[in-house]
Amino acid sequence: LRIVALAAALTALASAQNFTQRGFLDLTGIGYPQVTQNDSGQFVGEGLFRYEAFYKLGTDFRFSGGIDARADTHQQTESGFHFSFRDREERRPDFAVRRLSAGYSHGKLTLEVGKQLISWGKVDFVRPTDRFAPQDQINFVTPDSLAVTAARATYGTQGDNIDVIYAPWLTPNRDPLINQRWSPLQGGVPVQELPPSIPGGAQLGVRWNHIRDNEYSLSYYQGHDFLPLFSVTPDPLHGGIFVQRFYPQLRMLGADAAAPFHWATFKGEAAYFKSSDVRSDQYLLYVLQLERQSGDWDFTGGYVGEIVTVQRDVPMFSPLRGLARAFVGKVSYTIDTNRSVSFEAAVRQNGQGVRLKPEYTQAFGQHWRATLGMAWISGSPSDFIGQYHQNRYVTLSLRYSF
Amino acid sequence: MSSKRLALTLIAGTLAAGTLAAEDARQIMEESQRRTRATSERYEGNLEVISPNTKVSQKSWIYLRTGSFGNSKSVIRFTTPAEVKGVALLIFNHPDRSSDQWMWTPAVSRDRRIALQDRSGRFFGTDFSFEDLEERDVDQFDYEMAGEEVIAGAPCWRINSRPHLNRMSQYTLSRVWVRKDNYVPVQYENFIKDKLARRLARSNLEKVQDIWTPRLLEMTDLRRNSKTVLRLVKLEYNIPLKEESFTLQGLRRED
């Protein structure tokens, strides 16, 4: 009811010529055929209402705002009225500021200050250089990008520009809950989670971007990783363990490129990660990808590779590195203007993890879309993909966009 | 006159006539282009996509262009349906080669270059391919007069055009019908390997700011048997537009 009332109130606001808005109400049902050791729930219902509005003042200034309202049946969302700005909650906040920023542009300069979505990198499956793009990954069925609070300045032309980002605080990834089926810590040992240790301090990123016949970028990041490591200590009282998420200091040097060839487009992205934290690995993560569109078909395929230069063996939750040493691909076909099907696969090169995701989606009229999908996961419990072999699922979502 | 000299004279005459016809065809296309030259353009496009099973879906976009043939930049930004609102295509047209194109998806704040070999793909479920949204600059094609025909009651020249080698195109041949009275191309037939692939009919001609402009475009994909009808409303030429709107940063700003 709160969601519907909010939708009605906000929709009524739009009238001015410099004012634009968009949003959606999304209802998703997820069915899991199997229970897991720490989660007996086999059906999860989720609702998300998103509203975004934009206002242009003159030709140079622009203001953006957006909110999310959420609810679900599986205690993944905070209960009680709570408006989140920093997105640091363990669970999804029931109300959150999706974005809130002011922008100024003049000539070659674009400035944006506030909570905003930032995307770096060129490849599709995992983007090693995308350091200001934490995700809501409380489950892997309905992941979503999280905005970060930052000041962003872009200066230059279409051909060459430099992007400087300063984020005064870290926005961490929203990870699976320890007591639910997507938890990365499973194994029958009682786990007590301590409040996460989120570091203070700012994050800084610089990216030089060159676009001609080919495109390439160089990027540098200094701050903290938005993906956590786990500090594990024994809990002698209950015979289990205490775990605490922490976010190690991180420096990244990255590059990405796209080169169109006659038969396909090649995209590559690589980043080397170094940390002053002795508990953190040092490694190179890279993605090589080919993509091709032919008529109504879209093909994208590639390989995610990793070279670890210093290994620490500290437990982590990293969907980024979790896809390393794997072949990834996606094929989609547009049946007609309203319908499409796709098939996505990730196969670990050692065969210890496989995830296959077919999906069918259909639009109805101007506002409605239904999407039916499933995921078949198999593999070894020690593999990042394979550990979720009991989380095969079927999902149906219905979205009303406005 | 000896028979040898007569033969040579005939061959030379035929070649000269062919060259003249080619020049005429090119001159017609140049004149057609000259008459539609404007420093900028803006319109709102209402589209109906009619699939083979006669299902109709509606979309709309805003089109902005700065510059003119060969050196123009344009942005197409969807306004409906709601789920693609804000999705935009940025096109840089070049005088000597195919255009550069980028797609902007605001929901994920991502841009993606549309590679040359992918330009034959349909643009967001319409019957326009990405290539069809480029500007056809007269200098990028060879022309040949192919005859005269009447289209919708108007006498037209029928001209064959073939892309130069430096312009990568899915089409091997385009037939263009240009009206004799106002030099407006009213129909295109685009062939892929000698097979008719798409037909574009341009009608409802109106003079807008002294430029004859078709307000109704019907693109038929003959391989799929589907059709997209585009109606141009609120059309304006020579309006002030900011150059920086036609960049990837500009797309992001207008999110």
Q: List the uncertain runs of chain A.
A: none
Radius of gyration of chain A: 22 Å
| Tally of separate helices of chain B | 2
In DSSP terms (H or I, runs of 4 or more residues), the helix count of chain A works out at 2
The chain-level mean pLDDT of chain B equals 88
Main sheet specs of chain A: 18 strands, antiparallel, barrel
Which percent range fits the helix content of chain A? Answer: under 10%
Helix content of chain B: 10-25%
Task: Give an overview in words.
The complex is a heterodimer of chains A (402) and B (255). Chain A is built from 2 helices and 24 strands. Chain A has 402 residues and is mainly beta. Chain A has an 18-stranded antiparallel β-barrel. Chain A starts with a helix and ends with a strand. With 255 residues, chain B is of the alpha+beta class. In chain B, a hairpin with a 5-residue loop joins strand 1 and strand 2. The chains are: A mainly beta (402), B alpha+beta (255). At the A-B interface, strand 18 of A face helix 2 of B.
